[in-house]
Amino acid sequence: MTAAGWIQIALLAAIIGLLTRPLGGYLARVYSGERTLLRPLLGPAEAMLYRVAGIAPDTEQSWYRYALSFLVFHACGIIALYAVLRLQSFLPLNPQMLAESSPDLALNTAVSFVTNTSWQSYGGETTLSYASQMVGITVQSFLSAASGMAVAIAFIRGFARRRAAAIGNFWVDLTRGTLYVLLPICVVAALFLVAEGVPQTLAPSAEATTLEGGLQIIARGPVATQEAIKLLSGDGGGFFNANSAHPFENPTPLTNLVELVLIFGLGAALTNCFGRMVGSERQGWVLLCVMAILFGLGVGGLYASETSSNPAFATLSAQTTSPRQPVANLEGKEVRFGIAGSALFANVSTASSDGAVNAMHDSFLPLSGGILLANMMVDEVIVGAPGSGLFGMLLFCIVAVFLAGLMIGRTPEYVGKKIGSSQVKMTILALVAVPAATLGLTAVACVVEPGLAGLGNAGPHGYSEILYAYTSAAATNGSAFAGLNANSPFYNLTLACAMFVGRFLVIVPVLAVAGSLAAQPIIPRSNGTLPTDRTLFAFFLLGTIVIVGGLTYLPALALGPVVEALQLAHGTLS
Amino acid sequence: MADIIMLALTFVSFALAIAYASLCDRLLASPVDQDATS
Fold this sequence. Notes:
A: 574 residues; two-stranded antiparallel ribbon; globular; B: mainly alpha; 1 helix
């Protein structure tokens, strides 16, 4: 480990820390309908969109209507994206004359981007036309992020409102998130990326003659615009198969840092937005501190693991360095970013639900792979994607105050709202959906022929590849462990199922909790109230996340990364 | 034919999700909402 490596990590943490408060304040003003700097510019566009769509922005919805709007909107999104992918060969902006996707791949891709997962069973530059990338993928990246933030804001309103029958208007929240938050940041980010060398063109792939006289086709396209929203949305689906390891997606160390900030920025700011909307910024800081501790543990573990020697190297005669100098694990990494840059990006990506990669996760050492899995298995509450990270963390807050209430025999409360049995039931439904999809489908894939047919490795590593795929899909992360050929009808359909469950069957109970909380009065703080804006609660919340995650996934992790690490250490890995 | 199957899968999945939302609504509307710690 080097000082430069730690400085990279600290720099990212400092930037996110500095951005959280101003961006959180801006988000709170946007979603409260207050005047912002951009309202004079974008207000007319917002009003026009409401008029065209026939939306009454002042009419609010109950949680059930909100959830119905959310579901219907995304059903339409899947059908639209499916149609674009299936009709790609008949649509314009297809200079490479790429054929349409197969039906199962098109469905998988449509579900993937509508659910903000961005699992890619295909290579972007060899499968999707510019029209599919721009009209299909990029549009859904915007909308899935905006809808995730809308759900988080609706959840916050559940805590902030008293005796209210409504939690907001989904269409208004969706529009404001897209217009005032995502679009402006993406415009600036895309221009920055273009300035740093990321292509933005509709010209076909370039052809070059190599020194040996061969023909090399260099893929390019409208990369910068997709790259910006890919990172900001928590989506992560790359224009190129190599994702952010590709020099056209991530050309310089500066773009690498900015991409990390884009991934984490909104998710972190939403904690402050939560604090402001419930009337106590300290509540938001507590959540961010818990996220920061989990993030620190993950990135520290990854960095330490990847800089240690692979035990298998000890047996190689090519080992030339001093025995006292460990050989870092550089396999599968972009040397431009090195160990620290790769470990940091991998941790941010799996913690945030983004799923973008600048190194190949399959090549990380087994324990590192276990950390990446663990990041996703805790429901990606370590900042998470815009919206889903915050409501995931708030679900754990409900569990934490419920457990605390059981311990001291008091009715649990959180930010002035009584947590009753109905809220706990809905919370458990939301928290159970992801592990049920992950573990159930992993078990199926491990025993059926089509599941085993996709494996590139046998033994615990092969199992880890399957576990990673379903964990990534159900947690709406979208990063891949590689080594698994997932472009088959079996994997395309089962992974689509995992993504569907991980998004929609989580958000429905989340909105139900929001609705039931909004209907309650706000209980004044008393001597018997558990303070949830203190360090003690932060550690209690941290313990709850670790224990719930551990109890759910430890056996599954033990069969994969843990066994593989032990075999590697003892030289018995075949 | 495969396209119809995929679209049917999509419709069925969302129909189930909407039914799930209705079920949650009924659970919340249940008159017995006791204190979670009791």
